[in-house]
């Protein structure tokens, strides 16, 4: 975004357009559906990275639902919602860390075929959502959090496909655990970025404003 350094507040963007609302509804439905598919497959395949990605789908579905609910509200309320979303994304990252450690201690070797097939499906879904939301990446912290989530998802899906290839080639679980760790870092860094933007916006609004 030209003319804006890291952490500064972006220019106001109209978040009430029918186009943005429709994009959020599509993103919500796609993410909620993929959560059910990927979590079931992740548990069946014993894949930490698939389960992590599935939980990310669930978090994003909630993210889009919150974004729809606060459309047209004041900047302060939208920024407060972004604080909640950033904290939730951070909690997701910590869960992935714990789940990865669990599978590491138990020596889990996931099914590479299931990982690859579901990972490809998830990549197609997330790439479509990311393309749909790309036009809204430079709005306020709420709009940018939506884009950041979609971008991280597509990157995570590519990593899951790489993990599936690694598991297939080595017949070991460490590629799956490595990718789960990378996804945790993505979640934690995305959470920090969203929180930084949201708190910057809150500092520009008087405490008594709504």
Give a short overview.
This protein has six helices and no strands.
Features:
Alpha-lytic protease prodomain-like; 210 residues; mainly alpha; Cation_efflux_TMD_sf
Task: Please tell me about this protein's structure.
With 210 residues, the protein is mainly alpha-helical. It has a single domain (22-204), classed as Alpha-lytic protease prodomain-like, CATH 1.20.1510. The chain has helices at residues 18-45, 48-69, 75-106, 112-133, 141-170, 174-204. The longest helix is centred in the middle third of the chain and has 32 residues, at 75-106. It starts with 17 loop residues before the first helix and ends in a 6-residue tail after the last helix. Residues 1-15 have low confidence and may be disordered. InterPro entries: Cation_efflux_TM (IPR058533), Cation_efflux_TMD_sf (IPR027469). It comes from Paramagnetospirillum marisnigri. It is a multi-pass membrane protein. Residues 24-202 form the Cation efflux protein transmembrane domain. Keywords: Membrane, Transmembrane, Transmembrane helix.
Distance between termini? 27 Å
Number of beta-strand segments? 0
Envelope shape: elongated
Oligomeric category:
single chain
* Unreliable parts: 1-15
Mean pLDDT: 78
Category from helices, strands and their pairing: mainly alpha
The description of the largest β-sheet is: none
Roughly how many Å is the radius of gyration?
A: 18 Å
According to CATH, the fold-level topology is: Alpha-lytic protease prodomain-like
CATH architecture: Up-down Bundle
Helix content: over 70%
What share of residues are in beta strands?
Answer: under 5%
Pfam families: Cation_efflux (PF01545)
Domain Cation efflux protein transmembrane: 24-202
Membrane topology: Multi-pass membrane protein
Main location: membrane
